[in-house]
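Deliverable D5.2: sample structural annotation.
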Amino acid sequence: MKDPGLCRFGVLTASDRASQGEYIDESGPAIEEFLEKCLTSPFDITRKLVPDIQDEIESSLIDLIERDNCDVIITTGGTGPSLRDVTPEATENICDKILPGFGEQMRNISLKYVPTAILSRQVAGIRGKCLIINLPGSPRSIREILDIIFTSVPYCVDLLGGPYITTNPKIIQTFRPSKKK
């Protein structure tokens, strides 16, 4: 049985080379490090490392939602324009709703650092009560993006009926609309 106060995060890295052991995945651990530093509410993390194969990404996302009961899945890798980059397609295929504002904001953030951010195809969406966010494969980009977009994640999880997520305000200022009196 899932603890209603515990937020379950899935971290999925899509990378042919890392999944084959050709190099160490640094992107998944960068996401974990961010979560460990900024979250003050209880959470756990389930990690997956898969090749850039759409069916495998889709089945891993569904598994993280249905078997591991994840409230939020953050993916890394596979968001570029190359033929092997299929994480956005996998995400869109399994989602009930797409949240285009996340992708727009993620590209805007990255454009401050690199002009090639316009090539990124990051998306975010919802399947059931789970928020899925696609990030690029660069650990530096992951932190730049999460520092800004994560302010909206706790409220999105609230709207989906998930656990109440709190963050360290010195790292992330979580935004929730004020309640009307």
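Annotation notes: Residues 7-159 form a domain with the Molybdenum Cofactor Biosythetic Enzyme; Chain A fold (CATH 3.40.980.10). The chain has a mean pLDDT of 95.
The annotation will be released with the project's public dataset once the embargo ends.
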